[in-house]
Amino acid sequence: MRQIIASAFVSLDGVMQAPGLPDEDRAGGFRFGGWTAPYWDDAIADTMGDLFSAPFDLLLGRRTYDIFAGYWPHITTDTASDLFDEFAAGIARSFNQAVKYVATHHGETLSWQNSQWLGQDIIARLRELKRTQGPVLLVQGSSTLMQQLLANDLVDELRLLTYPVLLGGGKRLFDENAAPAAFTLAQSVVSPGGVIVAHYRRAGAVTTGSFVAESAAAAQA
Length: 221
Prior knowledge:
Blueprint: E1 4-11, H1 42-51, E2 56-61, H2 62-69, H3 86-97, E3 100-103, E4 115-117, H4 122-130, E5 136-140, H5 143-151, E6 157-163, E7 183-190, E8 196-202, H6 214-220
């Protein structure tokens, strides 16, 4: 059975819009595009390298797909080029080779190599994919798709990089439709810039309890 891993850069107030570039996504008048860039360091690079080190296919919303398709196929992988960057080239190779499953209304317009349309019923198709054999399905960005996955309890692991910044408004990771679920913290690290990198794995249903002592509860009965 395949796993869905949802990875996101998020602010302290849960915003995940346009983390990488100023003009990445200005929807809603968002004006803080590129808000993760000042925090980039070797620790963050290692985290991203680890995320992409195992085989994966990509699971993307249409806006993120278009951003990626306009960028990663154009990154040089030629080691002799003056523009060659080993880290970027490694990601480009992985992204270009991976199957890209895309949530979109216009599947016929997917031009990036190895792209596949998820169809009209996205959730049904994803449940079907999860029952097959293959690499993990890795979600990058794609806030609307991410919320659909969380609402339908399809996320097996969350890999969140939480940045020490408040953005106020913007597209958010979680909304009120997320299905209740418990997660276990599998791994965490804090970068020198204060970014909390945390890996959470699905751990069943939400459990509840009480801080009231048993003796006090019995006396109140």
